[in-house]
UniProtKB/TrEMBL annotation:
This is carbonic anhydrase. Pfam families: Carb_anhydrase. It is an enzyme of class 4 (lyase). The keyword Transferase does not apply. It catalyses: hydrogencarbonate + H(+) = CO2 + H2O. Belongs to the alpha-carbonic anhydrase family.
Length: 262
């Protein structure tokens, strides 16, 4: 395999993945944000540069060597891998966890990578995008969080840029609880496959959660083609969460591989 500049593949925007989970029942699924964890955020004294100081459980945020997100600039051509997105129309519970809009998915949707099977647990959003492609960011980023039976995590990232209105995003936004104190979300039925790009070319690397506790050994798969949503839809999200993106983290010698899509 040889190093090659990402622009040689003529892809302009990236995508992303990250997260962690427990529990296998739907109503409710486990949220990324635990109720009793120390307060953290994206500004003030609890901003990302301070996460590692907030709790011993958050030390990976400061000391970890394989952190996410990263900028995708130099990649290596990789051997083909078998990847299948076995998604179908399913119920999801839309909540505002205080850090992002999150949808907790019912069981039955899977990511298959070679012979490994990961179940989709939840998805959530960041603005602006957390990952970059040659130092370019997108308006938003979608993270699809999966877990296998051994507890290993795989996150699929999808960049989101301004364009046409997105009907799937519209249904998710319509389900956002109006009461910020609500403990139960609103249920919708969607097929998350409708939020994947047409070009399935993606990069892979070993990273971490992009939120505390910044757990490592997360397998990232990041699509290089963005999907579209309208500027109004972006602004609607920003009116609730104006900024919820962790800064880029150093690669520290990690290899980013590119895989041609179908």
């Amino acid at each position: 395999m040889k190093n090659s500049r990402l622009w040689r593949y003529q892809f302009i925007i990236s995508s992303v993945f990250l997260a962690v989970f427990s529990a296998i029942t739907f109503n409710p699924r486990i949220s990324l944000t635990e109720e009793n964890e120390p307060h953290w955020g994206y500004g003030g004294a609890a901003n990302p540069t301070q996460w590692g100081e907030l709790s011993e459980e958050f030390q990976s945020c400061e000391l970890g060597r394989n952190q996410s997100p990263v900028d995708v600039s130099i990649v290596e051509e990789a051997e083909p891998i078998e990847i299948e997105f076995d998604y179908q129309p399913s119920k999801a519970q839309v909540i505002d966890n205080g850090h992002t809009i999150e949808a907790l998915y019912e069981p039955g949707n899977f990511l298959r990578v070679d012979k490994e099977v990961f179940e989709l647990i939840q998805f959530h959003f960041h603005t602006p995008s957390e990952h970059g492609v040659e130092n370019r960011t997108s308006a938003m980023e979608l993270h699809l969080v999966h877990r296998n039976e051994a507890g290993k995590l795989a996150v699929v990232g999808v960049l989101m840029d301004p364009g046409e209105e997105n009907s799937v995003i519209a249904s998710i936004w319509d389900a956002i609880p109006k009461n910020t104190e609500a403990t139960q979300g609103n249920s919708i039925t969607i097929n998350i496959a409708d939020l994947l790009p047409d070009d399935r070319t993606f990069i892979t690397y070993d990273g971490s959660l992009t939120i505390p506790p910044c757990t490592e050994e997360v397998r990232w798969k990041l699509f290089l083609e963005p999907i579209e949503l309208s500027l109004e839809q972006i602004e609607n999200f920003e009116s609730i969460h104006p900024y919820n993106a962790r800064p880029l983290q150093p690669l520290n010698g990690r290899i980013i591989e590119i895989h041609e899509g179908n």
